[in-house]
Amino acid sequence: MKSALLNGLKLKSVKSIVVLQKDPSGFTTPFVAYRERRKGSRRLKPLEKVVRRLNIAQGTAAGVYLEAHERSNSRKRNGWFKDLRKNLARAGRRGAKKLFRGR
Fold first, then answer.
1. Can you give the residue range of the structural domain that contains 20?
2. Each residue's pLDDT tens digit, 69-85
3. Of 78, 72, 77, which is closest to residue 91 (Cα–Cα)?
4. pTM assigned to the model
């Protein structure tokens, strides 16, 4: 039955296929024809989530700092150095916002 339903079906958006079948008494019962397998253990899922959020926050902070660095450098002579603390603080705040609030 499984091979008949999944004949060449390879969609990434499909998580599972459930077929409703009638049993001899007339009730319908669900039959799971296909279920996507998990890649990775459940115990590591929270750790993966933390690492992913950290990575996203660091990327945001780096992007914000780079924009501020370029802006400061184009405005004043040695502007990137003069504005270093301000730019780092702003980038750190944006990264922390992304990390803790998830925005």
1. 2-35
2. 999 999 999 999 999 99
3. 72
4. 0.61
